[in-house]
Every structure is written in C-alpha cells, then in structure tokens.
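call fold(seq) -> tokens
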Amino acid sequence: MAITRMTVIKAASDADYRKGQDIFLIDKRIRNFETDINTLTHTPMITATVLDADGTEHETQVSIDEEESQIIGSLCSCPDFYQAQGICCHCVAILLKYISRRHIQASFPAKNQNRISQNLIETYIQQSSGIHYTAESSDVKGQIELEPILHKQYKRLSVDFKVGTHKKYVIKDLLEFARLVREHELFQYGKNLKFFHEPEAFTPESRKLLSFIMQRIEEYEYHFRYVQDSTYRFQTIKPLRELPLSPTAIDTFLNLMLGRTLQFRLADQTQTIRVLDCDPLLTLSLKSEDNSTYKLTIDNCLILSGASTFWILKDKTLYRCSENFRKDMQPYLTELNRQKTQEMILSEKQLRPFYGSVLKRLQAHTDFQTNGIDLSGYEPPEAHFSIYLDHPSDQIFSCSAYAQYNEETFSLATPISPEDGFRDATMENKVLTAIQSYFHPVMALEDEKAPEVDGDFIIDHDDTASFLFLEQGLPHFYELAEVFISSNMKRVRILSAPKAAIGVSVSHGLLTLDIRSDHLPYDELAGILNSYRRRQKYYKLKSGEFLKLENNSLSVLSELADGLRLSEKDIANGQMTVPLYRASYIDAVLTSHNNDIQSHRDRYFKSLIRDMKSVADSDYEVPDAMKPILRDYQKTGYRWLCTIAHLGFGGILADDMGLGKTLQIITLLEHARLEAISKTVDLTETASHTACPPPVSLIVCPSSLVYNWDSEIEHFAPNLKTLLITGTAQERQELLTHYADYDVLITSYDMLKRDIASYDNLHFHYQIIDEAQYIKNHRTQAARSVCSIHSVTRFALTGTPIENRLSELWSIFEYLMPGFLYPYAYFRSELEQPIVENKDQIAATRLQQLVRPFIMRRLKTDVLKELPDKLEHAVYAQMTDEQNKLYTANALKLQKDLEQQSDSMFKTSKIQILAELTKLRQLCCDPSLIYQNYHGGSAKLDTCIQLIENAMAGGHKILLFSQFTSMLDVIERRLKTEHILYYRLDGSTKSEQRTRLVNAFNENKIPVFLISLKAGGTGLNLTGADIVIHYDPWWNAAAQNQATDRAHRIGQTHTVTVYKLIARHTIEEKILELQENKKALSDQILSEEGVTASQLTKEELLQILQN
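ret:
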C-alpha cells in the first residue's frame, strides 16, 4: 500500500483540495521541500515552505504511514489550519508533490539518478501536464502598471521604467526584470509591492510596453554575448537601468505611446508630454531687416528622428508627423537644428530662388507670416520645356532638352546652380528622368566611344532602348514638353504585326500547310518568329522600322513552327509538308487559338480529325463472340485501336491496371482474323484463286507473362492460333520458320533480343508490346529490338507510360512512330528539360497536344463504378533500440559523406550512394539482411506478422510484396515458425509454375502469397486476395500500384485493403513523400496537373537523411 491521491482527497475538503492542487501545479510556490524519517514513528515526514498567491509564506509539515496508506499528522502556520475540515490546502500541496516525486523515483531507479537528472525529469513532467501558473488567483491581476520615462542626452535617446499600482517603484535593473518575467518569479519591490511577474499581472496597456522591453532586452543580451565572445571575453554584463533606443526602437516605443502621456527628461528637467498622431502648427515668420536682407524665423521645437517617422516636440506635445510634412519640413528643420538656431538670413538675390524652391513648400505646413512683405514679385516664372529628337544614323537616336523661364533658357544637361536664379527643380527632374529612362548623357561616354552627334543625350546601338523609346517614351515626351522631330526621325515607325491565315490540307498521305498574309515579309518571317520565341516585344525590319510582336497570330505561327520543327527555308517559302500524324496537334493548336488566326481546313483533314475524335461512334463492329464479354469502355478501347490502325498510326493503351488491356487487344486480333477470312471469301466469290495471306501479329511481353497471354487468348478467343516462341535457340529458330501458319506469335523481351536476327525477313500486321515500361530506356537492347521488327501497326500496353522521366514516353513513341517526338536531343532540350526543370507550361501544353490523341487512358474510378473500394493505410513501426542504433549510425555516415562531396564527386559516386540508400532501406526491413550475427529484432517484421495473423482471423487472404527476396526469405522462416501456410513467387519461379501458383491461390484456402515486387508486380490476376501488404516502399508509387492491382481489378468482389509498412523516422517516410511527387510527373502529361523534378539531387538526398 502507499499514499495516493485518493488518500489526500479523502483527508481534505473539496475546496482545500482544489486550492492545494493549484499550488502544487505551480512548483515555484513550494520551496525548501524535504522528506525525512520521523525519529519517533520511523515513518516519512514531509516539510516545505508554501507561498500563497500574494507571496505570504507558510511553514508546513505532514507525517504519513506508507504501509497503512494513512496521514498520521499535519501542521501548518496558515490561519485556516485549525478551522479547516481536514488538512489545509498547503498540506494538500506538499502531499501531492511527495506523490509526484515518489512516482518519478519509482520510474527511474535511485542508483541511476543524480540531482541534475531528477530536476530535469520533474521540470519536463510539469511541462507535459500542459498547465502553468497564471495570475488568475492573484489579487494584482491586471493592475500592475509600467510607467516609462524618456531621456534625451545629447543625440542619444533612452527610456527607463517604473512599476507598481498606485505607488510606482523604479526598475533598477531591466535585465533582472526581464529574467523575473521569463521565469514568472515572485519579487518584492517595497513594502507594498510583491507579485509574480507574469503578463496577466499587468494592465493591457502595460503588456504592450512589457513586450517592447522583453524584445529590446533580448536584442541587448544577444549583442552583449556576441561582443563578449568576439572581443571582450572576460567582460561581465552590468545592470541596465535605461534602455538605449535605436531609430527603429524610437518609432516602436513612441507608437505604443500614441494618445497617452509620457514623462520626458531633458537637461535634468522632467515634464509630462502628450503623444499625438498629427502635424504641429509651427509659426514661420519672414521679416525685412533692411532693404537688402530678410530674416526667416520658425518656432522653437525639438526633433526626434526615428527610422521611418519624423517626431517633433513643441509645447509639451510630441507630434508624429505625416509623410508629406516630413518630406517638406525635415530638411529645413534638421539644418536649423544642426546649426543650433531658429532663424536664417537671406539676401535679396537669394530670396527669389529660395522662395520658389523652399519657402513655398514650407508655407503649406506652417502659419506663414510675411509681416507686410509683398512676395508676389518673387513668384517663380513657369517653366516651358522643349525636346529636340534626331535619328542621324541607323543605330543612333539623339536628344536635347531645354527649360525656358521668361527670357532665360537652360539646357537640362547642365546641373542647376544657385547662381541661375530660380529653376523649377521638380519639373526639370521629372523631364530629365523621363529622357534618361531611354537615353544616356553624351558626356558620360568615353571620348573614343562617343559618336559625333548634335545632342546632349544618345541611344547608341541599342535596339531595345530604341523600341521602348518609340513605343513608350515618345508619347510621354509629348505630355511633358513641346517636341521637335527631324525629318530622319519621322521615317522611323513601329508597325503592328500583320495578321496571318493558315490553310491545312491532306494530300498523298501528308499534310500541307500554307501560310498567307498580304503584308508579312516571308523572307524575314523566320527572324520574326525567332524574336517572338525569345519573348521579345519587337523585331527590327531590314527597312529600319520596328515590328511590334504582340499580335496573337504570331503566337500560333511560333507554336506551329516549334511543334512541327519547321526550317527557316520552309517558313520563307510559306508552304510546307509534315507527316499525317501531326494532324491532331495542328487541329488542337488552331482550335485553342480560334480567335487569334484565320484558318482553313480541307474536307479530308476535317474527316481525319472527326474519325479520331468520335471513336465511340465509329463503325467498327465488335466480334460476336466478344460482345457479351466486353464492357462498354472496353468496346470503346477496341474501336480506338481499330481507328488508330486504320489511319496508319500507333498508340498506347494506357488504361489503369486491372481494366482489361489484354482483353481489348485480343478483341482487336480476333477482328483482324475475321476480317482476313472475309476478304478471302470476297476473293473466292469473284473467282480469284489468290487467297489473302492471314495477318500475323506479334506480342512481346515479359517472360513471366508469355504463358498468361497464351492462356487468356485460349480462354477468350480460342479460334486464334498462337505460337509461343520458347525452348532452346534451335527450337525457337525452327518455330519461326512456320510463323505464317499462325495468327499470333508470343515471345518475351529476352527471347526477342537473342533471336532478333531471325526476325529480319518476317513481317507482322500488328506488333504489341506489353508492359511497355520495359523499353523506357531507349538505349537498351530490348528497345532497339522491338523497334527493328517489321510491322504495319504498333501498339504499346502499359498502365504507367511515365514512371520517372519524360524520356520514357519518348522511348515508347519512338517505337510506335519513329520521329514522332523528334530526335531525342531535341526532345530533351525543347520539351523535357523546360517542363521538368523550369515548369514551362507552354512546353507542357505542346507535349500534351502532341501525344494525347495517341494515348487511350481510363482510370478505374472513371469507368468501374461497381469495382469495390481500395483503402490504403500507412502502418508505422517504431524500430527496436538495437535496430535504431544501426540505422542512425549508417544514416549519419552517409549524410556526412554527402556533405563533404563536391557536385562533381556526387555525380560520379551516385551508384555508391544509391547502394548506401538501399542498405538503409534494408536496415528498416530487418538488420539481419546486412549484419549476419544481428539478434536485436525487427519492429517491422513483428508488425507484419501481427497484421497477417489479424487478417487470417478475419478470414482474409493476403498478398505480401517486397523488393528484397532476402527479406522474403526472412518472412518465410518466420511464417514457418508461426505455422502459417503460404505460396511464394519470385524471379526464380518458372513461367509455367507461375500460372499454377496463381490459379491455386485463387482457388484454395492458403492465406498468404509472398511475391517479389519485380517478378510478380505485373501480369498476374490474384483477385482471391483482398489484403495487400507492401513490406518496403519503393521510390515511385507506380510499381507498388501495379502490384496492388493484382488484387484490385475486374473480378474482385471485396474491398481491397492496402497496408504500407513504414519504419518511423527513417528514409521510408521520405520515400512516401517522393512517391506523391513522382506521381505528378505522369499526371502532368496524361492529364493537366503540375510536374516536378524526377531525379534526386544532392540536396534532396540530404533532406531525405535528415529526420
């Protein structure tokens, strides 16, 4: 037994328990806390000094019997002790502290403790309670005031403070005061002032001043530490009574005092001043001293200059001046203040320019008294400006400008001098600024570079400045001055770009484009488009005139010139031919700019576009045997395939995984077989004895799917004769000699690479590559092999046309229609890099318009409303201590290595770095994959087994994927230990056995299927499972999604739950983030979302390693 909170609750009244609990939660109110053994009873005795909210101290003592869970006795010096119904609130407080400490000591053995650790533990436990002391129960809550006193000594401003309620006490050390506030400490200033220094204790207005003090003290202490560390290493910080105010701090402090009164001390005299937000009314007086001199006097006032605000003290009022007042009055007042005077003497000669330049501005803000002086004769004359422009040679514009005041004329190239009399500096600067926005002063040029021109300002060989001057500057000049233009200048014009029209027609299997314009100079059109492409606003014609490039028809011509890779010769001719597969792209560009350019499409072009857009309404009949099998969206996909083939193009069937891409291709092949039979019959009926040779098609797929294709064709189209190119090299060679006897040949990428020479003389109607991401690298032998096959029409099947890089899409299209996405170097520089690195929306739109007609992509959410839901969850596992130590050591080592590498070293060592990243991923899975003698356990493996057991208990079947076959070995051993039955499929599983394993799992009750992600992530139908576990995340989500869709596909009748096992605070959490980023790369081109970088940089790797 032991003393518990319930013991204390029973020993005190409700009110005293609540009060005691409040005291306990504010640890600083319990001081000198000690526990000892009572020498008489040999039981624990607790003593402490307990403070009330007002700071009154009470000596408190309680004796307890832990074994009997009893309070033996208590004593307290508080006046309520003898009247309390039970123990008083102070006894409650120290008992609760005792229980809290005993709990801490029980959790952390005493032999491992020292005083420092115990204090820290108590501090953090109190913080974690989320409760801290406030002044709620204090009698002074919201009553403490801060009273500032502003000092001015020489040019220095500072402020000190008093604190209190009715009576104020000087704060002798603001550094100590700030510490008291930070620590929420109790402090006594005098007999009548003692309080806990918390914001709640101060009045609302004083809290603002408190925040100001705390911020300035923080800056002061930081500055002192910096100086101490760098210069005065042994200097100690001294008490601070006055806060020095920087210009910024002056503004901050005085803005807090707006509308309030303030004590201001100047030259040992203190006065109370008001702080107002308005301009002062100063009296400015002009008097005649004699016939030739004048005296100008202004009221006495004191200037306080902040960082951005002008403050004036006059007659016990401190004014925050407006910006207009500051601009006009500050130079004058500051100069007088610097000269320590209130007056200035002006001669007759000085008064005229002074009146026009200075005095008129001062008048607007003062009570100006002229004392009978008539100033009408000193009104400055109005300035009249004239600008002279010339164009003496092809690359030069010159300018001169003058200001005329009555009979006097001044060149604006000549600086204003006091001897000039009055000159309107404001207007002259305005005109001069306008000129120098485009022209350079001739005087500023070096003598050898300065051309001989008749003018003070020049534009020399700068077409951009010339264009901007003609477009913007010249109209502005007319607003400011009278402009005189030479005859040469009049010949220079800015022309609007003439509108163009485009005609598109189909002829002999090609598209012909005609560009027509009555005023467009064809010989300069390439240069014009090049300037437009570089986002220039103009093009300088050979005539010297400027062509304004803001005509929208130019944007259409520029887009087509880039998208179609038109040469300068093509553009200069005004007519060009391009491949037929550019039809959809041209139509998309013209349609999206329908209002910008006139276009004419001939009827053959319109028919072609209509066929491509209205696939669902096409006349291609679904074979009778397939009609009851195909869903509506699959029929549309089949008709799209037929249309693409009929038009002589190629395409990507990119439907989401599990939507039946295989079935749509089988329907196409069956259609081709039936069509060949029909043609043979037609020939027979016309007495022709030459039979039409049957079309032979070739399917290339991963070796793991060869038998799957054969099985699917046998199931859905048994009349199609298939030939599997398998066996030894000699056997495969023999099979290929009989290829014409079959409808479909099926081979793998690996077999095709080996047999490619045997395909030289073979010709195929359709060539289909499945899992087309196998050729995502166009430099591989697999990509080169499929591209070398002779075939009429090519299709590619993949649920992920883009996994990581846009170059993967280029590789697939290079197989489908060579040259369609240009040479790779051009594709990379003009599309891939701008899209990925620069987020270039124009390039992204162009790529979308090019490829979209040749990609059929539907998502499950769009077409399979009846497909069960797919629920995805990330399951986090906290690594074991031993596992965490190994992971952290390896991660820190890799991070350090990366930080020390230069960019060039990073590029050359990427393979090694990726190997280290793989090592980190394996440590997340199970350190035994790296360290043979490791026995510290794997949190993720334990979590995985628990998931499997829970799923089995609920009658579920599980697919478990991992990147590492070595991890599958570990899981396999654990399943055997737990007596859990399973199947396993990895790269060593033969193709024939794969099919048997899949069928067996779907049909029997074996609950677990272990699958290598690479070997079994595609081409399998495993709808018998309804739970998918991804043991380790991969860099892009596409591979994992493909694996998940082995279960979440047509035929699935249950909700599929996907668990992604993630080791907490490791690289795996960052991989999840990268998966989302990489998904955007594919969505950008296949839909219309944003694109992100697809390659890990050094900075990204370092960010991944930082947890």
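Residues 204-230 form the longest helix (27 residues).
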